Amino acid sequence: MKFSKVLTATSSAVGLVVAGSSLFAMDLTVVSWGGAYSQSQIDAYHDPYMAKNPDVNFIYDESGAESVARLRAMKEANNLTWDLVDAVASDAIRLCDEGLAMPIDADAVLASAPDGTPASEDFGDLIINECFIPQIVYSTTFGYRTDVDEWNGRTPSTVCDVFDLKNFPGKRALEKRPINNMEWALHCDGVALSDVYDVLSSDEGVARALAKLDTIKDQVIWWSAGADTPQLLADGEIVMGSTYNGRLFNLIVEKGAPVDMLWDAQAFDLDGWIIPSGLPADRLEAVFDFVNFATDTQRLADQAKYISYGPARKSSAPLVGKHATLGVEMGPHMPTAPENSRNVLIYDYVWWADFRDDLDQRFQAWLAQ
Amino acid sequence: MRALLLIAPLLAFVLITFVMPIADMLFRSVENGIVSDILPRTSAAIKDWNSQGVDDLPHENVYRNLLVDLTIAVKRRTQTRVGSRLNYEAAGISSSFRRVGRGLRSFNTEPYSNYFIHQDENWGDTGYLEQLFSNPRISAALPSSASAFRTWQTDFSSDQIITPDDFVFVALASDLSTLANDKVSDLGIDSLRTAHADIDQLSTSSIKHMFIEFDKNWGDVNLWKTIKTFSPRYTDGYFLNAVDLKRGIDGVERRDQSERIYLVLFVRTAVMSLTITVLCILLGYPVAYLLAHLPLRKANLLLILVLLPFWTSLLVRTSAWKVLLQQEGVINDILVTIGLVDDAARLVMINNQFGTIVAMSHILLPFMILPLYSVMKTIPPSYIRAARSLGATPFTAFWRVYFPQSLPGIGAGSVLVFILAVGYYITPELVGGVKGTFISNRIAYHISSSLNWGLGAALGTLLLVAVLILYWVYDRIVGIDNVKLG
Fold first, then answer.
1. Neighbouring C-alpha atoms within 13 Å toward the C-beta of A192
2. pTM to 2 decimal places
């Protein structure tokens, strides 16, 4: 008797919860890159949105680096569990080409600028294809420790110092994929930054880049998550390493680590949202509503209060001001600031969308040897 | 019968969660339907092509069929998948497919529809084509165009459009130019006969030239050989790849030096797993001996110390080793503090084979200690006493009397540790760097990152077969009856 009472009470409670969740609450799985970057999104987009829409609940997934592979696998298994994905430009192109991302009508889905400029004009060229909803302009660049005794007071000034083991001994961290590493290697092997993609298009060019990387291979720790390099730098496990500029800002300015930025040959790239194709209508509506909010002029400008990435809307630029808690002026820390962007690698995301499979295969084979 | 019913739930569970996935994996390692599914007309057209040299490219019709297949694939957004598949065999093909998929719109295929419609306006009418292809004899004689027209109707056409897209006419031109005069006459359709008579006119707007003009890779014989080699539904390509071979121009050959990685990894996995097993025996034997010979209360306390790490999360233990072994880590710090190691020359103990061996030996140690302990518990202490009373030295008594009786425990522990080690991947991934990773890391990479599931399945199958062979050899030499878990 007692037992059956407990059972009834439990089942009705479960029933209530189930009914409640299906009627009011909506769980949205949002994929991003983790660390300081995800936190800036949560501060600028998710928390304000949830304050206005208490019935929406976000589930944060940090597998942004694997989004193409995971979405392909989900399609193969016919089991889509993601609702919104944060992807870099070349991944967005690949996802769009493969039908894994949904084409968007920017002006219908995204908010206009406060002065009424339609979204497609406000974002301009940064809408690189019909699936991509731009958020930020960021760069991949190097950070180095400022307290390395073996360097005898020298500090790295060009990206080629990464390949200079004589003057700058010590472990360095590079990303565990060919992107940027190949360009930097060729550049330091004597190719002008504007010619790197022409050279890389040939087999000899790939071999040349890998040969240059060979010269430092045994001193490299390979990272795959954006948060790895800041942690390795902070622990002193490496003396220099590549990562996204916002992660280094977080390490240097917020955490005060003895680390400095090497802006030389920083690789500009775009990052934005893509919506996986095949979402059911109710989820899609919820995702549209969130994306409309999260990419409006104010929200994009707000994100720059937490991390040093440039907002993708023209109308957000005048609103960028000081860091939310530190009060530091954010302008000079942006990758686009004139003193930081004297020598820039214009990262060719269309080229990478086409050649990624080829180079991944060669790079991974080279890595495993 | 009733017994069978009783175990039916378990049997069904094992079938669904164990046997079926393994069977699926074995199947994926040879399955290759993707090329003929996405490029069906090209696969059929290229069958008769046997290249005689570097200049001997496929016939114009092969390119025409490729255009038709690619137009449909781009519409369905599948052209990149076939490119990725072929890229596994010859790096460079993926970019060719991706670029041509985006550039296909710039191909001038208008001469093809113009050629037909200028001859007879009926060709521009969907209803006429519908009627024509509903005749089974005509469909059979013009297979590419019949299927291209059907696909156009289902995937491309809308109510406003009554003239099919150019690619249907490209398919028609390809079909007609392969037919002999009398075959066309037999069909008894005047418009077909007229179209067939002048079909060579169309060679002036060569699709072949358009492809090569767009991207010179399409004029590369090796690309076409790859397509031809991998158009059948089943392939041994994944298995060849898994042992660093490939199907080259003159049959099976070794891969380039820069692409050979799997045999090295198989050997490394075997050698390192063996090292770990030996280390576990050396470390575990004294512990198990101590456990078996202490008074029960103390033994139980020690046993908990052995089991506690066993119950701790694998990731926690691996991360702990990271903290201990890294260059700014605990061990290095202690060595530097007591002056054994210079600060500038800290030991590199992680992100290499040493790190993997240390962390995995620790993690797998309980799997050695527990079987050893339970076997040692059953060895009667009176045997040793008898040996000693008959004049044996302590060492002889141990080596000649005790040790042989504990062998079944060593056997069981070794099999357990070795088989677990061969399949480990999370620990080598975290502490192994590049040189300390196992074959299972490559399998994980192919399953979750590169999505080359066929190669991952082939590597997995080889690993499974290797373990089964080792098990069989072990059974022949030691005898599986001699293995005791308790």
1. 2
2. 0.80
